């Protein structure tokens, strides 16, 4: 019993772990030549007195200007480091570096259970009609998870992992909980069912360079259940646009209410315009925190909500618990995005976003204090995946270049299969006689320095307001010669006429 208590304490500690050690500060800056920086007398003085280390934080980028970005870090005061680097003449574009923190609520990890001896409700899967999604597909498109670390020997991860860095020594609890929600083994009689069912996983570290690596490794869905800070960064926006341009759908946690100082504050990476931001609801579709603390983030950058309060989790081999945080709503959406891509091969990230939002359940009635701040509503995985299949069937009979702009009606949500190790039904779940369709795309309020028109469907519907030319997958007019590898849209007379790859 004593060892069990110790293990629980250690696991809870690991879930609350921050990726940056106390006192670690960093700034990012551009340098034409790191050799010239190292020879700069002012920098040599700072390096000697502050112990500055230099790394290349976006080395996986293929964009020339991001190859010139360097991180200067030290165990020192962050403001002092930021001000001091402005004295170095060989650097420019100085920004505070990201501080990676997971978005769970460790104080709300209130109950451990052993699923081999006890049962619990899989209310989070009942609420989103996961079984209806599984009628279409059990998942053929792998999903990448960017997080701290993982128990790869976990019974719900064995046989699922396509990529893992064995040198990773970070805490393993949070990443394991996130990965198993997105795509843990299902129908194996152990632990929990995942929305991804048979979906395979790429398990990457928790930083933007690893997100870039996952995209270039071919992953079309990447989940980020973490924050890197509360301020916009041009470097990171450019890096994420590069990922999005590769046809990758990016999903991130919106924040846990206290994140960045309050629930209405913007949290990054979720607030970047190419990232799909996910906040939380409980089993009654309420956004109010049932644990009595501040509700999770609600603001104009939230795209959707999903179960995120008191969600059944498994965070280590043989152990389960209930946990709260947008860390857990995000991978449920990411796993669903993987199923959507499995049902509709070749679908674009913009079209995935449209399907997720147009099939969402309107939850305004349950949340009168948050109207307009919770995106399109609550995830309905069953209808989203069946809609994707309907679009795919439709695309085989029409031009494959036609963008998705209209919802498909008459989707049948009859349940034909079960994941076996999901337990119980939720009394407050989906009412098949009143599905409550979503309110369409949100797409407003993002900080936008790139005159972004919003993506494929927006381009197709704004023929009088756009130029002829080549656009990236976010709707940004680009010069193809200076753009990263990826998919682009050719527009003539305001209409998308074809997709091309660079």
**How far is the N terminus from the C terminus?**
59 Å
CATH homologous superfamily name of the largest domain?
Peptidase S8/S53 domain
Name the shape in a single word.
Answer: globular
Strand order of the largest sheet: 8-9-7-10-12-13-14
Total strand segments? 19
Architecture per CATH nomenclature, i.e. the level-2 architecture of the largest domain: 3-Layer(aba) Sandwich
Number of domains: 3
The overall pLDDT average reads: 81
Low-confidence stretches: 1-22, 106-120, 408-464
Sheet of most strands: 7 strands, parallel
Portion in helices: 25-40%
Q: How much beta, percentage-wise? A: 15-25%
Number of helices: 13
Give a brief rundown of this model:
With 502 residues, the protein is of the alpha/beta class. The protein is built from 13 helices and 19 strands. It has a 7-stranded parallel sheet, with helices on both faces.
Report on this structure.
Helix 7 runs parallel beside helix 10. The protein folds into three domains: 73 residues, Alpha-Beta Plaits (2-Layer Sandwich); 276 residues, Peptidase S8/S53 domain (Rossmann fold), CATH 3.40.50; 46 residues, no CATH class. Strand 15 and strand 16 form a beta hairpin. By secondary structure, it is an alpha/beta fold. It contains 13 helices and 19 strands.
């Amino acid at each position: 019993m004593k060892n069990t208590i110790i293990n629980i304490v250690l696991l809870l500690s690991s879930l609350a772990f921050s990726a940056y050690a106390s006192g670690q500060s960093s700034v990012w800056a551009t340098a034409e030549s790191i050799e010239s920086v190292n020879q700069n007398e002012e920098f040599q003085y700072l390096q000697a007195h502050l112990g500055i280390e230099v790394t290349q934080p976006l080395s996986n980028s293929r964009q020339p200007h991001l190859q010139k970005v360097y991180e200067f870090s030290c165990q020192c005061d962050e403001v002092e480091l930021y001000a001091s680097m402005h004295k170095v003449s060989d650097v420019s574009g100085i920004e505070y570096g990201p501080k990676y923190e997971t978005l769970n609520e460790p104080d709300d990890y209130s109950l451990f259970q052993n699923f081999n001896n006890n049962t619990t409700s899989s209310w989070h899967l009942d609420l989103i009609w996961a079984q209806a999604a599984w009628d279409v597909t059990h998942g053929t498109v792998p999903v990448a998870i960017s997080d701290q670390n993982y128990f790869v020997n976990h019974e719900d991860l064995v046989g699922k992992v396509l990529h893992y860095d064995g040198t990773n020594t970070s805490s393993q609890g949070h990443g394991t909980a996130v990965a198993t929600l997105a795509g843990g083994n299902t129908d194996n009689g152990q632990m929990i069912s995942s929305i991804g069912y048979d979906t395979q996983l790429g398990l990457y570290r928790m930083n933007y360079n690893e997100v870039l690596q996952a995209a270039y490794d071919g992953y079309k869905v990447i989940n980020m259940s973490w924050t890197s800070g509360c301020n916009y960064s041009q470097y990171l926006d450019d890096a994420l646009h590069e990922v999005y341009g590769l046809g990758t759908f990016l999903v991130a946690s919106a924040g846990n209410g206290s994140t960045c100082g309050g629930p209405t504050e913007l949290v990054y990476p979720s607030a970047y315009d190419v990232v799909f931001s996910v906040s939380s609801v409980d089993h009654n579709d309420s956004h109010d925190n049932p644990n009595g603390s501040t509700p999770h983030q609600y603001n104009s950058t939230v795209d959707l909500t999903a179960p995120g309060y008191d969600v059944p989790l498994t965070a280590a081999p043989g152990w389960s618990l209930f946990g709260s945080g947008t860390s857990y709503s995000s991978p449920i959406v990411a796993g669903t995005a993987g199923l959507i891509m499995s049902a509709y091969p070749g679908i674009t990230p913009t079209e995935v976003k449209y399907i997720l939002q147009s099939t969402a359940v309107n939850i305004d009635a349950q949340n009168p204090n948050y109207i307009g701040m919770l995106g399109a509503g609550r995830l309905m995985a069953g209808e989203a995946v069946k809609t994707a299949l309907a679009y795919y069937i439709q695309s085989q009979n029409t031009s494959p270049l036609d963008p998705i702009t209209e919802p498909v009606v008459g989707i049948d949500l009859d349940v034909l299969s079960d994941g076996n190790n999901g337990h119980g039904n939720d009394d407050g779940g989906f009412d098949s006689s009143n599905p409550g369709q979503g309110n369409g795309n949100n797409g407003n309020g993002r900080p936008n320095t790139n005159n972004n028109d919003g993506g494929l469907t927006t381009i197709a519907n704004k023929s009088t307001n756009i130029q002829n030319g080549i656009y990236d997958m976010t709707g940004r007019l680009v010069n193809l010669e200076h753009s990263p590898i990826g998919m682009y849209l050719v527009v003539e007379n305001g209409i998308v006429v074809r997709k091309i790859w660079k």
